[in-house]
Design brief:
The protein is an alpha/beta fold. The chain is 43% helix and 16% strand. Strands 1-12-9-8-5-4-3-2 form an 8-stranded parallel sheet, sandwiched between helices. The protein is globular. The structure holds zinc ion.
């Protein structure tokens, strides 16, 4: 039987994957269209992206379901396909591993709105949407659920609750931080600092605390976040920083950190205690391949 994700990371750090959204754009997805719909309409293209990550050395793949909740899919008129879209995503990621052992992490992104009293959605609607998505991912065989790019504790709580209720074998909470204007620290858009987020995620039953995406959160800032998480929790930590900053070049969004630049931060992240390292927006199979080499060298030196 396959070692569980939580057991595996007690043995050695694991390599995650890189961005999906930017890769879908390269594969022809137009801005404003649903990348998640491609799990049903263009599964071959999603599979090709995830295969490139596996070939680069990824041991964990996030499903192509960031916007796969009913509330998000409803904006594209495909709310009726929540379950098939999420189930197909798990099957595609599993297929991408081929015969290799790997972990399929069911991805739940933000529902993309505001809850009452600031917005139009009730807590019950958001919880129902997360429950439906989490159940679809777990029923399809996801090894874990990640509730990612979270900025508010209210929404995070609902996502983690839904993942636990769905029976996920491993529940990951992942926050998106922004570096403050003066550059002195970072917190989420809703003002949550890493210590508060990590303590809250632990209280809410997360098995792994994580960070991803955000503004100005380079590899060094991610390392600082890992250290700050460690100050308040003994839970394993996952980090998926962006490949630098987005820039508009020829009307296309590109990220400005090359694999060589980003990989310099991998060993420091591992030394700080990150158990799973991957990349968020703008990171590519080339970034992940560089990460793989750095992690292999690090482990060959006897670090675990
Ligand atoms: Zn991102």
């Amino acid at each position: 039987m396959k070692t569980s994700l939580l057991d595996a990371i007690t043995q050695r750090p694991l390599l995650g994957d890189g961005a999906m959204g930017t890769q879908l754009m390269f594969a022809g997805l137009e801005q404003g269209n649903s990348g998640e719909a491609w799990n049903l309409t263009h599964p071959d293209r999603v599979l090709a992206i995830q295969r490139r990550y596996v070939e680069a050395g990824s041991e964990c793949l996030l499903t192509n379901t960031f916007g796969g909740s009913r509330i998000m899919l409803n904006r594209h008129g495909i709310a009726q396909d929540v379950t098939p879209i999420n189930a197909a995503a798990v099957a595609i990621a599993r297929e991408a591993f081929g015969g290799r052992e790997g972990y399929v992490i069911g991805d739940i992104g933000p529902f993309g709105g505001l809850m009452e009293p600031y917005g139009e959605f009730t807590e019950a609607q958001v919880l129902a949407a997360f429950r439906e998505q989490a159940k679809a991912l777990v029923d399809a065989g996801a090894d874990a659920i990640i509730v990612e790019t979270q900025t508010s504790l209210e929404e995070l709580r609902l996502g983690l609750l839904a993942a636990r209720e769905a029976g996920a074998a491993c529940v990951i909470g992942s926050m998106a931080y922004d570096v403050t204007l003066d550059g002195s620290t970072f917190r989420t858009m809703m003002g949550i600092d890493p210590e508060r987020a990590a303590a809250f995620m632990q209280e809410q039953g997360a098995d792994i605390v994580a960070l991803n995406c955000g503004t100005g959160m380079d590899m060094e800032r991610a390392r600082q976040a890992v250290i700050r998480y460690h100050g308040v929790t003994d839970l394993p930590i996952m980090a998926q920083p962006n490949a630098g900053q987005p820039k508009l070049v020829d009307m296309k969004v590109v990220y400005d950190e090359s694999p060589a630049q980003m990989v310099a931060g991998v060993v420091p992240l591992l030394q700080a205690g990150a158990a799973i390292v991957g990349g968020c927006c703008g990171s590519t199979p080339d970034h992940i391949r560089a990460f793989r080499e750095a992690m292999d060298r690090f482990q060959a030196k006897g670090h675990s």
